[in-house]
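Page 42, continued from yesterday. The earlier attempt failed because a stray header line got pasted into the input along with the sequence. Redoing it now with the clean sequence only.
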Amino acid sequence: MSPQDTDTAFDELRLIHRALNGSKEELFQLLERPSPDILRAALRNPALDEGHLLALLRHTGLHPDLFTLLHQQHEPPAGNYQVLFALAQHAEVPAHIVSALLPRLYLFDLLKLCCLPSIPQDQRVAAERAIIQRIPTQPLGNKLTLARRGTAAIVEALLKEGQPQLVAACLDNPHLKEGAVHQFLASAAATAETISQIARHNRWKHRPELQQAILKNPRTPAIWFTLFLPRLPRSVVKNLALSPRLAHHQKLLVAEALGGKKQT
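This time it went through. Structure tokens are written below.
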């Protein structure tokens, strides 16, 4: 071993000793650019607290082993919830650790993860799935908050529940996509009340594809046939007349519209 290698090894041992026994201020300095050995020693230092680890996890370019070490450390301070949340939201944390952490996070912290611009797409999708899995057991208040603030995937899952209060909140969510509304209108979850919510909503009521989906549902109230049919091309109304899903009174309304509609 060369003298330079010897000096390097000695310096590493000295830093490890400081990590084991150093003060709080020394630990902040040591955790700026830690090696796995230094971190392993620091985790055994009685002076190490949540503040050290939170400061550490604000850095990027961290050694991959760091995340494994923190995840495997089940006792405080690494077992502290804020540290777990900081781990879960770090852009460089391995996917398998994220998967293990997400079930331990609170519902609305999962939502925060979904909305962070720095979060990689795979972490965002994993957080969305974790939320969607919990939706069936959530009280209405939590579901309404998710419906107002959730991502496209979350709000689509909530819309499928078909509860009028939830539908109203989902329809106002700017992330909701037209395709999700279209699928809901074609589903058994759509009722006369929720169909009407969509039909009178300022954001959705003027969309031709949704108007047609509304008119194809056998539970759609007659008022929407009266309002929408005059706005549709004759060819569309003709196709609507052939739909096997329409109730008898709806077919009569379509036939009446065809009889009085000018050629286009």
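Notes: The longest helix spans residues 3-21.
Reminder to self: strip header lines before submitting.
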